[in-house]
Amino acid sequence: MNEKKEKKVYESIEERMREEGISRGAIATESLRKTYRKKIWTKFVKAIKDFDLVEDGDKIAVGVSGGKDSLLLCKLFQELAKDRTRKFEVAFISMNPGFEAMDMEQFKRNLEELDIPCEVFEANVWEVAFKEDPEKPCFLCAKMRRGVLYNKVEELGYNKLALGHHFDDVVETALINQFYAGTVKTMIPKVKSTSGKMELIRPLIYVKEEDIINYTKRNGIVAMACGCPIESGKVDSKRREIKNLLAELTKVNPNIKQSIFNSLKNINLDYVMGYTRGNKRDVAKDGNENK
Ligand SMILES: Nc1ncnc2c1ncn2[C@@H]1O[C@H](COP(=O)(O)OP(=O)(O)OP(=O)(O)O)[C@@H](O)[C@H]1O
C-alpha cells in the first residue's frame, strides 16, 4: 500500500466512524472476524490451542508497547475474552520507558480510539541505558525493559504475560543466534520467566509480520515505533540486516521463512553435534567442543 492509498484508507475509516457512529476499535475487531480471520484470528487461536497458552483460572497481562504487534494482541485478547467457555482474566499493561511527551499523547490516543483500557506505569529505562552505553544501548535497554516489566507484572499478581512476538521474530531470532552467537535457539511460545513466578506467552507465533502490517494499515491504526534512533533505522542493527537478507532469499525461495520456522520444530537430536538442556550439556561422542 503506498502513501496515497494509505491516506485514502484512513479517510474512509474516519468517514465510517462518523457515519455509523462506531469506534476504530469496533472496526478493527470486525476486520479480525472478517478480512483477517484466516491470516490472523485463526492462527492466534491455533497457537493458543497447540501450546495451551490460555488455561482456566489464568490472570493474563498483555504487554503493550504501543507498536503494531501488541496493539493487535490486545484486540485479539478482547475478542477471545468474549468466549465464555474460557475462564481467564485479561488486563493491558504498559511500561513507559521514557517516551517523549508527544509520543505519549499519541500512544494514549491510539489506546482510546481502539477501546483498549491500559494501565501505564513509568520507568526510566531509556535514559539509564543511553547513559550507560551511548554507542550500543539496545542490549541494556532491552534487558532493563524486560526486567522492569516482568517484575511489575509479577507484583500485580498476574501468572502470565502475553508478548507480541510473531512468526518473523521467531525466524529472525533463530538466524541472529546462529550467525552471531553460534547457537540454535529462538523465542518459544511458552516459557517460565527467570524468577519462575510467571509464564511468558507468545500467541502471535504463527502470525506473519506482513499480515500485521497490512491489518494495521487497513484499519487506519497509527502504531508507534519504539522511538529510539536504532529502531527507527538511523543506525543499523543485526535484526535489520537479517530482515534484509531474508527478503533477498525469499525472492529465490518464497517458502524460506516457513522452512526455517518448521526446522525449529523438527530438530533431529541424532544429527546434531551437541545440545544443552537446562544445565546439562550433551556432546556427540567424537565431537570436540573446542574446535
Ligand atoms: N514498554 C512496554 N510495555 C509493555 N509491554 C512491552 C513494552 N515493550 C515491549 N513490550 C512487549 O514486548 C513485546 C516485544 O517487544 P519489542 O520491543 O520487541 O516490540 P516489537 O517487536 O516492536 O512489538 P510491538 O509492535 O508490539 O512494539 C511487545 O510486543 C510487547 O508485548
TrEMBL record:
It comes from the Bacteria. The keyword ATP-binding applies. ATP binds at G63, V64, S65, D69, I93, G164, D169. GO terms for molecular function: ATP binding; transferase activity. It holds the Pfam family ATP_bind_3. Transmembrane segments: none annotated. Keywords: ATP-binding, Nucleotide-binding, Transferase. Residues 59-221 form the tRNA(Ile)-lysidine/2-thiocytidine synthase N-terminal domain. GO terms for biological process: tRNA processing. InterPro entries: Rossmann-like_a/b/a_fold (IPR014729), TilS/TtcA_N (IPR011063), tRNA_thiolation_TtcA_Ctu1 (IPR035107). This is tRNA 2-thiocytidine(32) synthetase TtcA. The lineage of its organism: Bacteria, Fusobacteriati, Fusobacteriota, Fusobacteriia, Fusobacteriales.
